Amino acid sequence: MLQQNLRTCGLALAVAAAVVLSPHAQSETFTATASVKNASGAAASAPVTIVVDRKMPQAEADKFLAAFKSGGTAALRKALTGVAPTGSVRVGGGSPTATRLTIERPTDKGRLLTIVADTPILQLGAGAAGAKPKEGYDFAIIDLQVDSKGAGEGTFAPAAKVTVKEGVFVVEDYSGEIVKLAGVIRK
User: Fold this and answer.
1) Cα dihedral 160, 10, 114, 67 sign
2) Is 69 left (phi over 0), alpha (psi -120 to 50) or beta?
3) Among candidates 113, 131, 118, 128, which has minimal Cα distance to 181?
4) Please, what is the Cα angle at 117 between 20 and 47, to 5 degrees?
5) Cβ contacts of residue 153 below 8 Å, gap of 6+?
6) Closest Cα partner for 158 from 127, 135, 179?
7) How is residue 115 annotated by DSSP?
8) Backbone Cα Rg of the chain
9) How confident is the prediction along the chain (187 residues), in pLDDT tens digits per residue?
10) What is the DSSP string of 15-28?
11) At CB < 8 A and 24+ separation, what contacts does 43-50 make?
12) Fewer Cβ in 10 A, N or C end of the chain?
């Protein structure tokens, strides 16, 4: 059975109810290993570097939530146009991709960082025979759960479609598989 990757996105929790810890804190760099395994057992991994230059204050994040609620992904994309990058994501030796939305909220284990790029980074499986269309997978979304020392784990949707189901943001990755971020360390 093909595993369908629909997961409740930390974006909803972070945007709708974030308690922003310090939006103007110093820059942080995290490294991790991204790994994915499909239903047939094929696996891949790559190093990932995530730079967070700034975290958004709640008032700024609320504007993007309102845009999404009023007009879906097209309105969110338009609202993010011209927004100064909040950092970047680099997979392997590739070029960094700017992120446009970074929100932080406290958790019982430390903090959750939700990071959004307004462009897909990688559409896993797009080159395979019979691959589905790439349209609609317009974002990349990372959720990092880190402790006070910056160590932890996370998930990565390198090409994501964002929808709302039953009032909750849901992220569907293009590949249909969960990309796990292991060994997250703040440098």
Assistant:
1) positive
2) alpha
3) 113
4) 100
5) 32, 144, 145, 180, 181, 182, 183, 184
6) 179
7) E
8) 16
9) 333 333 444 444 344 333 334 444 589 999 999 999 987 788 999 999 999 999 999 889 889 888 988 898 899 989 999 999 999 999 999 999 999 999 999 999 999 999 999 999 999 888 888 888 899 999 999 999 999 999 999 999 999 998 877 766 789 999 998 899 999 999 9
10) HHH---S-TTPPPE
11) 44/124, 46/91, 46/92, 47/91, 47/92, 48/89, 48/90, 48/91, 48/92, 48/156, 48/181, 49/89, 49/90, 49/96, 50/87, 50/88, 50/89, 50/90, 50/115, 50/142, 50/144
12) N
Beta strands in the chain, from DSSP E residues, in sequence order:
6-8, 28-37, 43-52, 87-91, 97-99, 101-107, 110-117, 139-146, 152-165, 168-173, 179-186
How many CA atoms lie within 13 Å of 94's alpha carbon, on the beta-carbon side?
A: 15
Sign of CA dihedral 124, 35, 153, 150: negative
pLDDT of residue 168: 66
Side chain identity at residue 121, one-letter code: I
DSSP string, 59-84: HHHHHHHHHHHHHHHHHHHHHHTTPP
Report residue 50 as tokens: 């995530």
Place of tokens 């060994």: 183
- d(CA 145, CA 114) in angstroms, rounded, equals 9
